[in-house]
Amino acid sequence: DLGASMLALGDLGLRLQALKTMLSSGERGAPDGLGDPVVECCEALAEANRVSEALDLLATLGGLKSTFSVDVVRRLDATLALVLDQAWRSEEALAVVRPLIASCQSDPAVPRTFICALRICEGSSLWKMNRVDEAIALLRDLRSELLQLPDSRHLALVAQQLCSAYMLKGDSSTAIAFAWDAIVSARRVGARFVEACALGNLGMLEKQRCRWAASIEAHSDARRIFEQGRNAYRATKEKRSLAIVHWKMGHLSDAS
Asked: Mean pLDDT, the chain, as a whole number?
């Protein structure tokens, strides 16, 4: 409900302000312990579409980045690429993520899962730039690698990104197949945000096929998950999508 959404907004705002306050005392240097809270806060801001605040927080680091370890700097750069991609500043995201991928691939100590996350960001940026075939080739290769491993959030996210890429390509049948792949994988690992995003895509695809009941079910499930996660922005987007479906059905009272 609205009260819960505002509470979550306030909690995130408090975290953001606390981090800015701690980072502003840069004369003493920024300990590595601040790296993870900054990354987590920026990811939460990006999911809530508060990208300008996430970018401001990352900019607050300034010269303090030189006091962090290499691993923390890499995580912060990966977060910057993610936020830029979320903001549809795709060329900038690619300019950050591609050198980072090259650096990480030459370092055997970097976890494979971290590189997977970077490649997903690269694929997402590519389809947002209408370089759909490049994105699909990259994401399909990554999916083949991940299918050899147990279900993971990365596998669900790759499927969700492939769904979006095929939607842009105009291949609705393949997009629907990947939407369901993403939903199933996300449910297996409890990746609720990815599941809700895939359900939102599925709702739009079913609407295109005039399958009104299926579209309403998908958008309703997505809205419920976003509300449970206190993501007011995305829950409102799903509510708007539901209103459009009801309007197309001629159910004007439900649309309002």
From this structure: 89
End-to-end alpha carbon distance in the chain = 18
Nearest to 115 by CA among 100, 136, 134: 100
Neighbours of 5 (CB within 10 A): 19
- CA-CA distance, 15 to 202, in Å (whole number)? 33
Q: What is the DSSP letter of 247?
A: H
Q: For 126-149, what is each residue's pLDDT tens digit?
A: 999 999 999 999 999 999 999 999
Please state whether 49 falls in left (phi above 0), alpha (psi between -120 and 50) or beta.
left
- The per-residue pLDDT for range 53-93, each reduced to its tens digit, is 999 988 888 777 777 889 989 999 999 999 999 999 999 99
Please state the length of the chain.
Answer: 256
Helix, strand, or coil here: 250?
A: coil
Q: Characterize 55-71 residue by residue with b for buried, 16 or more Cβ atoms within 10 angstroms of its Cβ, and e for exposed.
A: bebbebbeebeebbeee
Distance of CA 212 to the CA centre of its chain: 27
Scan for tokens 């409900």, then name that residue. 1
Of the candidates 125, 184, 131, the residue with the CA atom closest to the CA atom of residue 155: 184
212 CB-near residues (< 8 Å, 6+ apart): 206, 245, 248, 249
Band the pLDDT of 10: cuts 50, 70, 90. Answer: low
- d(CA 128, CA 91) in angstroms, rounded, equals 9
Q: Residue 180 has which token pair?
A: 């369901």
Give the span between the Cα atoms of 247 and 245, in whole angstroms: 5
